[in-house]
Amino acid sequence: MEEVDKAGADRLICRCEEITEREIREAIRAGARSVVEIKRWTRAGMGICQGRSCRRLVERILAEELHLRPEEVAISSFRQPVRPVSMRSMDEEN
Amino acid sequence: METMRCEVAVLGAGVNGTSIAYELCRRGKSVLLLDRKVMGAGASGACDDMILLQSKKPGILLEMAFASLERFKALVDELPCDIEFDTRGGTILIEDGEHLAVMEDFVAKQRACGLDVEIIDAARLRGLQPLVARDIIASTYSPTDSQVNPMLLMKGFALGGTKLGLRHRSGVWPLGIDRLAEGWALDLSDGSRVEAEAIVDAAGAWANDLTKMIGFQVPIAPRKGQVVVTESLPPIGATNVWSAQYIVSKLKPQAAPASGAEAAAKKPADRFGLGFAFTGTHSGNYLIGSTRENAGYDTTTDPEALGLITRQVQRFFPALSRINFIRSFAGLRPSTPDGMPILGEVPGAPRFFVAAGHQVMADLICGDKPTFPMEAFAPGRFAATSPGAAR
Questions:
Q1: CATH number of the domain that residue B14 is part of
Q2: Mutual orientation of helices A55-66 and A21-29 as an angle, nearest 10°?
């Protein structure tokens, strides 16, 4: 964690939910082993952009922490509607 | 490969499995918690956050819900992380005289069981929920209904259990379960082996995958629920909200899966078992559901069901038509033919326990007298098959 602290562990990885690099590394050190677990423990990727910004960053931190190759990190699911959609846009007349 | 030994192997790391594992660790047991995927990969990670007393049938299920609520309150201080427990109370919206009659009867029975709940008129409802549609004629109100964040609850049980010696492995699953002279042996998917004095099957809608390895069938079927998640919003009213139709759908005897012409003839809302559930999370996102579908193990969300849910939101809260939803998900509830959980030791299989649907299992496993009479939940109550007979 030392070099991370110097590099700025307080920088935001998930900007929507304001989750820092430190919080994500702490989740992994507490036992999270996948992007989906990090998402559920920290909320990284659960905001309005649905992980469009932070998904890759979280995968990279996970690979670093667990000494995995990037292709060994399981990607988390993409969920409808991908981009925010208003309630009324789902009405039948639309 | 190595053999791991433990007193109890808990299979399934959802709210049930993590809770049982934690409670057993508190009682000094050595516990191994296994999950096929990751923590909360099943229903516990794809649900809403309610501890809803008003939906419980008067009787033992409501009694157990009271005990659960007290346990949740204690866990707030006991677990090593915040679980976002809150008591906002709940209102069940009543649209017409028919539903009013059903709810008056239901509320009277719940009051007799000691639940603080009443029917309130439209004016009082608007005091609690100013944005509710003008034509809602009445509502129930209970100040007791509460909520907890299931993700954080599982995290708390796992972290709390780990401090007490809990071992947890994800991504591994038994391929075979064999009876030993004392206890059970599990051959895991990664080639390793576990020997346990007792097994707890906490696999929810997948519980039968495990019991059938010892020749026992539990009649558990997945019942799909689709949920829509809104963007983060300021608080909408004081309470969480359901529709009387949600309660009616839930109380209905579980119908056989509709298929073919019969299904096509039904209205979409009936075909999807639609009911309104509207709960606000600590982060400001609202979770809005849901459906009750017999759709096998499929967890995709589909536009037709999401359209039913979003139209229903606007029916009850017209002001929300312009707000966005950002996500949807579907989870699989473990449903049983009689609507009761399956909790107890499998007949003919000593120290093999099934725990699908509730968490009062530590007493049974430790051989203590359970707080509740457990006969109504016994895994053998449906049984024509026992492990002895099926072999």
A1: 3.50.50.60
A2: 40
